[in-house]
Design a protein that fits this description.
The chain is α/β, with parallel strands linked by helices. The protein has a domain at about 150-290 and about 410-415: Rossmann fold (3-Layer(aba) Sandwich). The protein has helices spanning about 1-20, 45-65, 85-100, 110-120, 155-160, 180-195, 215-225, 240-250, 270, 295-310, 325-340, 345-355, and strands at about 30-40, 75-80, 105, 125-130, 140-145, 170-175, 200-205, 230-235, 260-265, 285, 360, 365-370, 375, 380-385, 390-395. The strands form 3 sheets. Strands 7-6-8-9-10-14-15 form a 7-stranded mixed sheet, sandwiched between helices. Strands 2-1-3-4-5 form a 5-stranded parallel sheet, sandwiched between helices. Strands 11-12-13 form a 3-stranded antiparallel sheet, covered by helices on one side. The longest helix has 20 residues, at about 45-65.
């Protein structure tokens, strides 16, 4: 009876407080701002995306220790779409409708981003996308903190064609079979033709997600490269397929001096599971490398290494940082700054406040969010693989490059406006 009377008294008390317009025992969530983290922690893309989840959690922890956002702590809500593209949309809807997140940081592949876009548009959510992509998109509800093609793919191919890059005359466009590689290669094919490269000097090959047998394709590349002119491979292979690709490259004895490979989706994290000694001299094009020397990067690398040890991550003593991790870090900090400028987490107010935001990035440059096109201005670096799995920067742009979401090498883009759809 005592328990029942106590319950009745508590119920009456709560009702009385509510009637006075007060809140009894405010919930934890009411004092926090929920932040969604939407990354594959299992499946073929986990090799790349797990580190982005950890980077987001680390950045949220850093912000919370510094006082949070508008006096509130950030509360991460982590979901795993498991490299299942339709599941990305389902998890995005859950984050927005059930978890009520103010913003989402996530996706890697363009097919996952395309899967969630209708959800963010319908529910007026906000997504920060941290990975290089094919462009040909500009949405009100998305901020793109990775590279557009003119901030990665085009400079890389220009480098391969230059004297310093080996003066390549033939090109193998090799990718995973989905929208990012196919659209990027459509742009690169048009770019190469504009530079006088003949159709017969371009080979294009695709493999499915999770593909593991690269013997036949490497043999075709060797044959293509043996036909006279200097040949280079442009790789848009994504996920764990990079491990067998690079292993087979080493097994076949295809050295960088013979047929250089430049990758757009391989960084320090992907090379952790590969013997990099046979890969020395092969290239990657990014907007950040762990090996960059500057105070901001020293702080970023140390922070992540300390985080890995604190969280007891697998092989915590060997963790690395990479470009999409930096883009995640920049995006979260810029969102924080925009919320504080807007004095609100309201999506439309934050979108307006994001224009022109700047942040001193680990790359060493001051990253700027363009005033109109929802993309960062980014410097471009090309690095050679070293025996320890790090990159030696061999070329860089003189300064940050403004993104071209609509590539001039796609017919019809001349009439596309620079601002996002719906604005």
């Amino acid at each position: 009876m005592k328990t029942r009377r106590t319950f009745i008294k508590a119920t009456v008390l709560c009702a009385s407080i509510a009637a006075m317009g007060l809140t009894a025992l405010p919930s934890f969530a009411a004092d926090t701002i929920k932040v969604g983290i939407l990354h594959s922690l299992s499946g073929t893309m986990a090799i790349s995306e797990t580190a982005l989840k950890e980077t987001a959690l680390m950045t949220i922890d850093e912000i919370n220790k510094a006082g949070g956002v508008m006096g509130k702590k950030l509360e991460p809500v982590v979901v795993d779409p498991a490299s299942n593209w339709p599941l990305f949309a389902e998890k995005a809807r859950q984050l927005l409708t059930k978890d009520k997140v103010a913003v989402t940081f996530g996706c890697w592949t363009s097919v996952s981003r395309k899967s969630v876009l209708p959800v963010y548009k319908e529910l007026n959510g906000l997504l920060f996308y941290p990975v290089q992509y094919e462009g040909e998109e500009l949405e009100k509800n998305v901020f793109y903190t990775g590279a557009a093609p003119n901030q990665q793919a085009i400079p890389a191919v220009e480098y391969l064609m230059s004297k310093d890059g080996g003066e390549a005359k033939r090109f193998v466009l090799l990718g995973t079979d989905y929208v990012y590689p196919r659209t990027t290669n459509k742009i690169l094919r048009a770019f190469l033709k504009s530079k006088g490269v003949a159709e017969a000097d371009i080979m294009e090959e695709y493999t499915p997600f999770g593909h593991s047998d690269y013997q036949t394709i490497i043999a075709k590349i060797k044959k293509f490269a043996s036909e006279g002119k200097k040949t280079a491979v442009v790789s848009t292979i994504n996920g764990d397929s990079n491990v067998p690709f690079y292993k087979e490259l080493g097994n076949a004895g295809l050295k960088a001096t013979d047929v250089p490979v430049v990758a757009f989706s391989v960084g320090e994290e992907e090379l952790r599971g590969v013997d990099t000694k046979p890969l020395v001299g092969h290239l990657a094009s990014w907007n950040y490398f762990m090996s960059l020397k500057n105070p901001e990067n020293d702080k970023f690398v140390k922070m992540y290494k300390d985080w890995a040890k604190k969280q007891k991550l697998p092989n915590a003593d060997k963790v690395v940082t990479n470009d999409p991790m930096e883009a995640t870090y920049i995006g979260i900090h810029m969102w924080k700054q925009a919320v504080e400028k807007a004095k609100s987490t309201d999506v439309d107010k934050v979108i307006a406040a994001m224009a022109g935001q700047t942040f001193k990035a680990p790359s060493g440059i001051t990253s700027k969010m363009d005033e109109t096109n929802h993309h960062l201005h980014k410097s471009v670096f090309i690095g050679e693989v070293k025996a320890d799995g790090q990159f030696n920067v061999v070329w860089k742009t003189p300064g940050p490059v403004r993104a071209q979401p609509w590539s001039p090498f796609i017919p019809g883009n001349e009439s596309k406006k620079d601002g996002p759809e719906g604005m």
